[in-house]
Amino acid sequence: MNRKTVSGIMVSLLLVGTLLLAFNIQPVRAIGTIYIRPDGSIDPLTAPIHRDGDLYTLADDVFSDTDGIAVERDNMTLDGADYSLQGSDFWPSVGVRLLERNNVTIKNLEIKHFFHGIDLRLCSNIDIHGNDIMNNNGYGITLDHSSNSNMTENSIGYNGDGVDIYNSSSNNSICGNNVVNNLENGISLLMSSSNNTVYGNSVTGNGHGFSLGYCPSNNITGNSIANSNYGLHLWESSNNCIYHNSFINNTEQAHDHAWDEPHLYSPSANTWDDGYPSGGNYWSDYNGTDSHLGPSQNITGSDGIGDEPYVISDYNQDNYPLMEPWSSIPTTIGDLKTEIEELGSEGEVDNQGIVTSLLAKLNVAQKMFEDGKTDQAKNILNAFINEVQAQSGKHITSEAADALIESAEYILSHL
Question: Among 11, 128, 141, 283, which has the highest number of CB atoms less than 10 A from its own CB?
Answer without folding.
Answer: 141
